[in-house]
Amino acid sequence: MLTNLEHLGLAVRDLPAATALYTRLLGQPPYKTEHVVSEAVDTVFFQVGGSKIELLAGTSPDSAISKFLEKKPEGIHHVAFEVDDIEAEMARLRAEGFVLLNEHPKRGADNKLVCFVHPKSAGGVLVELCQEVKQ
């Protein structure tokens, strides 16, 4: 079950400039920066109440973020929801007819297991499922 809006992922071209902009906009610095090798992205996270804003910049022309920005302007890339059991939620969504972009959960940023739902099966929105990795 989806339990919470975990974060909004925003695709940006210039991560330092976007970080400065959101620091001023939100009135606080980011709590974390991270390079995610598997996705070829650099990320910056801001905490906003119980949710987060994730800035994403591609680190190679082949990254999903770089390809996204070739076709679209900077802005919302995905909506992420927290789940308690990502495997069970993936099975539920498959049974409901949603197309998943991942066969199995994978490691994502901010200590999460993640899976993406294809936008074509989710009303044009890329949806990310996130489950906290237990230490």
UniProtKB/TrEMBL annotation:
Biological process terms in GO annotation: L-methylmalonyl-CoA metabolic process
EC number: 5.1.99.1
Domain VOC: 4-132
Cross-referenced CDD domains: MMCE
Keywords for this protein: Isomerase, Metal-binding
Key word Repressor present: no
MF-aspect GO terms: metal ion binding; methylmalonyl-CoA epimerase activity
Enzyme class: isomerase
Transmembrane annotation, as ranges: none
PROSITE patterns the UniProt entry points to: VOC
Stored InterPro entries: Glyas_Bleomycin-R_OHBP_Dase (IPR029068), MeMalonyl-CoA_epimerase (IPR017515), MMCE/EMCE_epimerase (IPR051785), VOC_core (IPR037523)
Family label: Belongs to the methylmalonyl-CoA epimerase family.
UniProt protein name: Methylmalonyl-CoA epimerase
UniProt organism field: Hymenobacter polaris
